[in-house]
Amino acid sequence: MEEIVKNWERAKAYTKEYLDTMPEASYSLKPTPQIRSFADQMLHLADGNFSFAALAADVTCPVGFGECEQSKDKSKATVTKWVLDSYDFVIEQLRNMEDADLAEITTLFGRYKMSRRAVFDTLYEHQTHHRGQTTVYLRLAGVVPPGQKLF
Questions:
Q1: pLDDT score of 13 more than 80
Q2: CA-CA distances (angstroms) from residue 149 to 11, 92, 128?
Q3: Distance from C-alpha of 62 to C-alpha of 77, rounded to nearest angstrom
Q4: Prediction pTM value
Q5: What is the pLDDT of residues 28-62, one digit of tens each?
Q6: How far is it, in rounded angstroms, from Cα 3 to Cα 35?
Q7: How many Cα atoms occupy the beta-carbon half-sphere of 111 within 13 Å?
Q8: Distance separating alpha carbons of residues 70 and 82, to the nearest angstrom
Q9: Residue-range domains of the chain with CATH
Q10: What span, in angstroms and rounded, lies between the C-alpha atoms of 109 and 106?
């Protein structure tokens, strides 16, 4: 469990660097009209963190499904708060679990039977995917993305 939590803490720090690096004026940047803005990508990441972790830990989610992304306030400060709070929520759920809890089977979104560990693994992939997408947004905003943090 210690190793899993350490990876989530690293992911949180890495994502914070992305949030800090993007200029406030570019939080609304959309590479094309059909896709999410930088703020919406990050808020979608936060929604995933909250909902998947709540389902994996079998606790009440502190936000409604999609609440972060649907927020009217897409300021840098608000987006950063939502995202960092979502990582704190994931980390808290993991710290409240024992290693054996991760082997328990749960049903994700009422249809996907998997271990609690698999839910957290899927969530980790989700946040990595969406953070990675925002690398292009940073480049389009004229800033250099943070260096990769594998360790």
A1: yes
A2: 8, 22, 12
A3: 19
A4: 0.95
A5: 999 999 999 999 999 999 999 999 999 999 999 99
A6: 34
A7: 0
A8: 12
A9: 2-140 (1.20.120.450)
A10: 10
